[in-house]
């Protein structure tokens, strides 16, 4: 990598960190106790997802594809694994990503175009679901869909962190505060939290009084 591509990556690192924090919070959701609070967290997550994976809809072929000109793919020569990994994530989470895109696009063009009409949670478990109304279509999203996608994107960005670490070592800047901040937390470690039976309590602790 180069300083330019690393500087570009830092914005994506921040977006992914915030997505994980918001999703972990939602894993502690009680739709009654947290009514009026959780809506902003789910909206944040929905808006973050398309920022992290550059997928667009081809109306002519009626399918989603990875846009090679968008996002970090500008640096594909330095991250040769990136496009294949993005395509794998798109394939493995196509239904989820299509639903997210429909909701997020409505938010972008008309704030009231996508309405959260129902939310559910299970007491003592990291399990929630959301139902959005977009036009005359109802779109359901579940905690499991969010977590599965996020674990895969965490693994990808953990590998990007390894490339940053390699560059910092090569230029003898491993102890520079900037690189230490980018590498202070391995994104794969978030996945250990999602697999922890205490996940619900971690999330519950993050909701404000």
Overview of this structure, please?
It is built from eight helices and five strands. It is an alpha+beta fold and 209 residues long. It has one domain. It has a three-stranded antiparallel β-sheet. A hairpin with a 4-residue loop joins strand 1 and strand 2 (63-66). Helix 1 (3-26) crosses helix 8 and helix 3 packs antiparallel against helix 5. The longest helix has 28 residues, at 143-170. The termini are far apart.
Index terms:
two-stranded antiparallel sheet, 209 residues, alpha+beta, globular
List the helices and strands and how they pair.
Layout: H1 3-26, H2 38-52, E1 55-58, E2 63-66, H3 82-92, H4 94-109, E3 114-121, E4 128-134, E5 137-142, H5 143-170, H6 177-183, H7 188-194, H8 199-206
Antiparallel strand pairs: 1-2, 3-4, 4-5
Helix pairs in contact: 1-2, 1-5, 1-8, 2-4, 3-5, 5-7
Strands in their spatial order, largest beta sheet:
3-4-5
Span of the ends, CA to CA:
43 Å
Helix content: 55-70%
Kindly name the structural category. alpha+beta
How many E-type strands? 5
Strand content: 5-15%
Total DSSP helices: 8
Count of folded domains: 1
* Uncertain segments: none
Report mean pLDDT, rounded to a whole number. 95
User: What is the H/E string?
Assistant: HHEEHHEEEHHHH
Radius of gyration (Å):
18 Å
* Global shape: globular
**Oligomeric category:** single chain
The description of the largest β-sheet is: 3 strands, antiparallel
């Amino acid at each position: 990598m180069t300083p330019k591509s690393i500087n570009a990556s830092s914005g994506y690192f921040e977006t992914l960190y915030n997505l994980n924090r918001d999703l972990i919070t939602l894993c502690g959701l009680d739709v009654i106790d947290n009514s009026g609070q959780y809506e902003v967290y789910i909206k944040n997550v929905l808006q973050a997802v398309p920022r992290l994976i550059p997928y667009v809809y081809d109306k002519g072929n009626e399918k989603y594809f990875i846009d090679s000109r968008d996002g970090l793919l500008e640096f594909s020569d330095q991250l040769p694994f990136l496009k294949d990994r993005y395509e794998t994530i798109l394939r493995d989470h196509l239904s989820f990503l299509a639903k997210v895109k429909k909701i997020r696009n409505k938010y972008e063009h008309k704030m009231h175009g996508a309405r959260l009409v129902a939310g559910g949670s299970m007491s003592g478990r990291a399990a929630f679901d959301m139902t959005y109304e977009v036009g005359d279509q109802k779109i359901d999203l579940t905690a499991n869909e969010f977590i599965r996608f996020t674990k895969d994107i965490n693994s990808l960005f953990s590998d990007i962190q390894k490339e940053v670490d390699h560059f910092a070592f090569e230029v003898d800047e491993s102890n520079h505060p900037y690189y230490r901040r980018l590498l202070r937390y391995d994104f794969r470690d978030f996945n250990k939290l999602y697999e922890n039976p205490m996940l619900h309590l971690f999330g519950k602790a993050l909701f404000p009084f």
